[in-house]
Amino acid sequence: MTTTKGLLVMDVDSTLVQEEVIDLLGEEAGVGERVADITERAMRGELDFKEALDERVATLAGLPESIFDQVYARIHFNQNAKELVDELHRRGYKVGLVSGGFHETVDRLAAEIGIDYVKANHLEVRDGQLTGRVYGEVVTKDVKVRMLKEWAQENGLALSQTVAMGDGANDLPMIQMAGVGIAFCAKPIVREQAPYQITEPDLYQVIEILDEVKM
């Protein structure tokens, strides 16, 4: 049995991928500007994340379930996403995604590049249409921290052997909890408080940080 050497847990929207998927859904619903404004304020830490999520998801009521295929076609991985995951796996790491976005798209992204763990939100669908509600546990900043701890424990890792990365205010607690916390092209509040920075949208720079700290 192979021993896991470390764990990277990262955000998805504006970290693993270039886009904010909720904003793309909003555009398809014809409320793109309104949704994008709420997203931006939530990411800066100006709004409660769950309230902001509920407000944005409510605008999607009535969209057909097929919207996920349309939106998925518009999502782009940030540079070297697959290369980062492959190199981490080569080094004996597991990789997890924690997302305030939605399983309907995040699961497909994870499968495409070989991610080990996923925790995201679920959009409710009835009779082939979005209801404008989420169901199940909402992925808040506290849930992101909990998943970092749970996945580390599952692999017999100390938190000092973990890496966490994201761009928004709801990523800060897990970034500060991990052994190596990285702000990725992040909002000002995250840049100010994260131990490490990546300022270009190149995910492979994670490896340079890990080599620097000898993880």
Features:
single chain, 215 residues, alpha/beta, Rossmann fold, 7-stranded mixed beta sheet, globular, HAD-like_SerB, EC 3.1.3.3
> Would you give the CATH topology?
Rossmann fold
**Average pLDDT rating:** 95
**CATH structural class:** Alpha Beta
The CATH superfamily is: HAD superfamily/HAD-like
Count every beta strand, where a strand is a DSSP E run of 2 or more residues.
7
Approximate shape: globular
Overall description:
It catalyses: O-phospho-D-serine + H2O = D-serine + phosphate; O-phospho-L-serine + H2O = L-serine + phosphate. It is an enzyme of class 3 (hydrolase). It comes from Streptococcus caprae. By secondary structure, the chain is α/β, with parallel strands linked by helices. It has one domain (6-212): Rossmann fold (3-Layer(aba) Sandwich). The protein is 42% helix and 21% strand. It has 10 helices and 7 strands. It has helices spanning 21-28, 32-43, 49-58, 67-72, 81-90, 103-113, 141-154, 172-177, 188-193, 205-212; strands spanning 6-10, 93-102, 117-126, 129-135, 162-166, 180-184, 196-198. Strands 4-3-2-1-5-6-7 form a 7-stranded mixed beta sheet, sandwiched between helices. A hairpin with a 2-residue loop joins β3 and β4. α1 runs antiparallel to α2 (32-43). The longest helix is centred in the last third of the chain and has 14 residues, at 141-154. The two termini are 21 Å apart. The mean pLDDT is 95.
